[in-house]
Amino acid sequence: MSLIFHLQQKHKMDIQTLTQKIEKVSQLYATHFGITREDDWFILKLQEELGELTQSYLMMIGQARSKQKTKQELEADFHQEVADVFAHVLLLAEHHNIDLTKEVEQKWLIWDKEI
Q: In the chain, what are the domain boundaries?
């Protein structure tokens, strides 16, 4: 089974291709800003993005100041932060040579047979 992600309704991309594209962007970002992506960078960057996702969620549900953003802007920010966390999970997995498709099948989709 292959994990397929729908991008912009018409565009489908498998997890490997998506990871490769995200890895390329991450490398360009690191080069542009002079960042050395050492082993700990991947998990620490994921933690940073998770914090931003949490802040965005709290703002969206009215449990943190909205910084004068509209409801639509807060929702859009939340969606973007989910994407950031997802991208950094892919980067972390790639860095540690984790086959996410295999791991998801063994950890999550095994229950599909039970349901």
A: 4-113
